[in-house]
């Protein structure tokens, strides 16, 4: 039986997504995740002042970080999907626009983009800070996701498109019914990585007036001068969140890969 | 009788190579034509031009009354009527065997799902795989995958079937199961163009064997004649290699 061993190349700036095979009791993921979780629970119990107070101050920020992350990834996903399709489009103008978008956005630091979109948009229209933050994150990550989708689509063997066309499907039908469903499985790990990277990068929006996790921490620290303690808790919360999502992505990947068996 | 497939002076260049250099041939309805020849002789390119996965540089290809090579030909419509089976099967790995077969009828021909499923089941049993309807391609052997691929092509009710080296990627013990299905099709009156070196199949089913080399048709004849008593020197030399 011809089983094709898929090579996975993953370069990630997010938490590692655990390998499917990695089931050791003391896996790196478990040590990090449960270690961070234990500290988050134990520190407030052992020394309620200031840790318990910090922990009580942060939830609003966690919710805000979540909101920014989920909205950004949602828009970035579709922006990325259409950018990826644009990058392989045979229509020259669409192809060119998508490529320019990717080149320009990837060449500008996210922090600069956040400032730029905040002040540029703010100059013409009055929009809430969080909207501006989400737009900046989505536009930035859309470019990176676009490249992932493009690579994913191109990794599907040419024979798949040919078989679909030979059956009388249009290029569009073949793309949506045959190519993209397979692409989703291929790109899930790198898209998951981007999601986690975005979760972390959402801390950058704290420079706007968006009171996310980091900003809430900073507010607390500057009032109470517990800098070390506060940022320890902030770091632990980020860590627990990113590790939680990396495991979630691994589980989803496993589900979607059922057909490969 | 009118020709089902007619190729007139087909020329196809790739960057530096001429894959087809003035190929003409015709296939009558119900005929089974085998195309043999060394690799690079243009056999596969010829098949791929017939359903326009590749486009000719010049020449014409007709399927019944429709000219495939005409720029504004409704190529999608033509492809519905021309089934193709690939060397590498090209089953859709994310769909079960059954869904592989029902997808195109449902999406392209708008056949109601229930009807499509019934037909797919009948086709699966015809290729001897009734029990594999819910298996994914990765759970099937090469021979089984190729049989599903044939069923998938048949589900569109094609009037011509193109086979592009259907058994070359298979282990020897799986070749027979695929050839048996093809033989059954041939006996059923399907018009078939087959790129293959399976002599046994040729002798059992082919009306005509075409030998191609360097993008040209060198010789055409009945299987008995061409295999045992070829006229052209090049045909002889090639047959010496493969027999």
Structural summary, described in words:
The complex is a heterodimer of chains A (261) and B (243). Chain A is an all-alpha fold and 261 residues long. Chain A has 10 helices and no strands. Chain A has helices at residues 28-46, 48-57, 59-87, 92-106, 110-124, 129-154, 158-166, 171-201, 213-224, 227-256. Chain A is flat, with a radius of gyration of 21 Å. Chain A starts with 27 loop residues before the first helix and ends in a 5-residue tail after the last helix. The relative contact order of chain A is 0.17. With 243 residues, chain B is an alpha/beta fold. Helices cover 38% and strands 24% of the residues of chain B. Chain B has 9 helices and 10 strands. Chain B has helices at residues 43-50, 75-80, 97-108, 113-126, 142-154, 172-187, 199-205, 223-228, 233-242; strands spanning 5-13, 18-27, 32-36, 58-63, 66-67, 82-85, 160-164, 191-195, 208-213, 216-221. In chain B, the strands form 2 sheets. In chain B, strands 6-7-8-3-9-10 form a 6-stranded mixed sheet, sandwiched between helices. A 4-stranded antiparallel sheet of chain B has the order 2-1-4-5, covered by helices on one side. The two termini of chain B are 34 Å apart. The model of chain B has no long low-confidence stretch (mean pLDDT 93). Chain A binds chain B through residues 1-3, 157, 159-160, 162-170, 173, 177-178, 181-182, 185, 259-261, and chain B through 51, 53, 76-77, 79-80, 82-84, 86, 88, 90-94, 103-104, 107-109, 136, 138-142, 149, 152-153, 156, 169.
């Amino acid at each position: 039986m011809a089983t094709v061993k898929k090579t996975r190349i993953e370069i990630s700036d997010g938490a590692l997504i655990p390998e499917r095979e990695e089931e050791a009791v003391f896996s790196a993921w478990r040590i990090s995740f449960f270690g961070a979780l234990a500290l988050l629970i134990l520190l407030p119990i052992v020394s309620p002042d200031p840790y318990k107070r910090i922990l009580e101050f942060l939830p609003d920020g966690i919710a805000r970080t979540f909101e920014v992350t989920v909205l950004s990834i949602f828009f970035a996903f579709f922006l990325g999907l259409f950018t990826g399709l644009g990058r392989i489009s045979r229509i020259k103008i669409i192809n060119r626009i998508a490529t320019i978008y990717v080149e320009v956005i990837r060449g500008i630091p996210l922090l600069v983009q956040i400032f730029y979109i905040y002040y540029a948009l703010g100059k013409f229209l009055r929009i809430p800070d969080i909207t501006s933050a989400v737009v900046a994150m989505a536009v930035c990550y859309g470019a990176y996701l676009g490249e992932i989708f493009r690579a994913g689509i191109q990794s599907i063997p040419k024979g798949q498109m040919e078989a679909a066309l030979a059956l009388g499907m249009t290029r569009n039908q073949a793309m949506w019914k045959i190519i993209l469903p397979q692409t989703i499985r291929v790109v899930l790990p790198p898209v998951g990585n981007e999601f986690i990277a975005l979760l972390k990068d959402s801390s950058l929006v704290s420079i706007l007036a968006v009171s996310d996790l980091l900003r809430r921490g900073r507010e607390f620290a500057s009032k109470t001068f517990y800098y070390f303690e506060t940022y320890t808790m902030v770091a632990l919360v980020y860590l627990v969140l990113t590790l939680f999502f990396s495991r979630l992505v691994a589980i989803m990947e496993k589900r979607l890969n059922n057909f490969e068996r | 009788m009118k020709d089902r497939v007619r190729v007139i002076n087909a020329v196809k260049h790739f960057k530096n190579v001429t894959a087809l250099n003035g190929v003409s041939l015709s296939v009558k309805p119900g005929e089974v034509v085998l195309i043999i020849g060394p690799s690079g002789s243009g056999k596969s390119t010829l098949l791929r031009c017939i359903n326009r996965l590749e486009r000719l540089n010049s020449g014409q290809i007709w399927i019944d009354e429709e000219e495939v090579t005409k720029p504004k030909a409704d190529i999608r419509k033509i492809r519905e009527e021309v089934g193709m089976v690939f060397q590498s099967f090209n089953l859709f790995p994310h769909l079960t065997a059954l869904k592989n077969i029902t997808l195109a009828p449902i999406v392209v021909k708008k056949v109601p799902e229930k009807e499509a499923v019934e037909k797919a089941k009948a086709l699966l049993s015809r290729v001897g795989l009734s029990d594999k309807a819910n298996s994914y391609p990765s759970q099937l052997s090469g021979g089984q995958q190729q049989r599903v691929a044939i069923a998938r092509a048949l589900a569109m009710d094609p009037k011509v079937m193109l086979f592009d080296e259907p058994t070359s990627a298979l282990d020897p013990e799986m070749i027979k199961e695929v050839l048996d299905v093809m033989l059954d099709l041939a006996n059923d009156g399907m018009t078939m163009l087959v790129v293959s070196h399976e002599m046994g199949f040729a002798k059992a089913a082919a009306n005509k064997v075409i030998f191609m080399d360097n993008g040209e048709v060198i010789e055409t004849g009945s299987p008995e004649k061409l295999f045992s008593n070829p006229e052209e020197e090049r045909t002889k030399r090639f047959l010496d290699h493969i027999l």
